[in-house]
Design a protein that fits this description.
SH3 type barrels, 2 domains, 3 helices, about 190 residues, 5-stranded antiparallel β-sheet, about 35% strand, alpha+beta, 3-stranded antiparallel β-sheet, 13 strands, Alpha-Beta Plaits
Length: about 190
């Protein structure tokens, strides 16, 4: 039996919107295995954050244990002012801050992941695609969501990418629910 109590933390504290006043979304790179601790620290200090998590089931000594792990290990997304940044810095969990230039792009990426997580479908960590086909899901519970696929042969594997981290998660979708948007070429073999 483990001797420590698992840290259970909400994925989202606040809202996924562009903040007003002097606050901005930032990506916080934290020390290894400190994402949930930093999220707990932030909520106690009324600092809004988003920590996407993946649900895992593991077997320990013939017992199934359900846990949640950070989707992007080492990173947490926070709404910070200069004062909040200082407060988070003294927590002892922060390594560095990544400045977000395009706030709307980050929020769009995070909103897609948050929406998929709320649907309680299995998400799988995958490689980020620098090139691929942009798709839109046109029917089903993910209707209106956009993502990337590797190619025509893998149209059912839609990747939800976070551009600033160059990381992605994949959700499996029925191919008839997916439509390619934008330009693409078909090569004849």
């Amino acid at each position: 039996m483990s001797s420590h109590k698992p840290v259970i933390i909400n994925e989202l504290f606040g809202e996924l919107v562009i903040p007003t006043e002097d606050k901005r979304w930032s990506v916080v790179y934290c020390k290894p295995r400190c994402e949930k601790k930093l999220a707990d620290y932030a909520s106690k200090n009324s600092i809004h954050y988003y920590l996407p998590q993946i649900k895992k089931t593991r077997v320990y000594q013939r017992q199934k244990v359900k846990t949640t792990l950070p989707m992007f290990p080492g990173y947490i997304f926070m709404v910070l002012s200069a004062k909040d940044k200082e407060c988070v810095s003294i927590s002892g969990y922060v390594v560095s801050f990544i400045r977000v230039i395009n706030q709307q792009e980050l929020l769009d990426d995070l909103s897609r992941i948050c929406f998929a997580n709320k649907k309680d479908v299995p998400l799988q960590k995958v490689l980020w695609l620098s090139k691929g086909l942009e798709v839109e899901i046109v029917s089903g519970s993910f209707r209106g969501m956009r993502g990337m696929v590797e190619g025509h042969d893998k149209i059912s594997e839609v990747r939800l990418q976070v551009e600033i981290l160059r990381q992605a998660v994949m959700v499996k979708i029925d191919p008839k629910d997916v439509q390619i948007i934008g330009k693409y070429e078909i090569e004849e073999v």
